[in-house]
């Protein structure tokens, strides 16, 4: 695990110390940020089920204005905080130690440009997370995007009121599903 590019390029990240955290591969991270490249500079990034923070840290390294990391696990939080300090991007990071669902049930302080969701696989956690974001449009900036990372076999249609699923990109055992406001002319990553 490492930061691929940006101000912290090449910095090795502390891998998960617990079995419950599944980090994104460098290949998957590179593919994701290749898709999101124009959205990252100066964006507000929300990393849900953050684990050790590899995705949000990559966003900060590539020029995101701020990133909020939401993680419940004590061991993952310890590793996340270490990674933020080690990469020297902690001045633009906020760590929320808590449950993603409780976090999303509160009113947002400001909208996010990119919301990244990577829950433990096969636990049906990504669906209610997207539904909570759909129920409260203030979480997402007007031209913002929600990205779900999961196993390709887990992706299926959801009944949503305000968000629409666009592209689904598959990279081996990882899929990224992109959601945006239904009012956008086209749902593009």
From TrEMBL:
Renumbered residue ranges of the record's region Disordered: 1-24
Source organism superkingdom: Bacteria
MF terms in GO: 16S rRNA (guanine(966)-N(2))-methyltransferase activity
UniProt xrefs under Pfam families: Cons_hypoth95
Coiled coil feature spans: none
Major enzyme class: transferase
Keyword field: Methyltransferase, Transferase
Entry EC no(s): 2.1.1.171
Statement: the UniProt record of this protein carries the keyword Methyltransferase: yes
Stated name of the protein: 16S rRNA (Guanine(966)-N(2))-methyltransferase RsmD
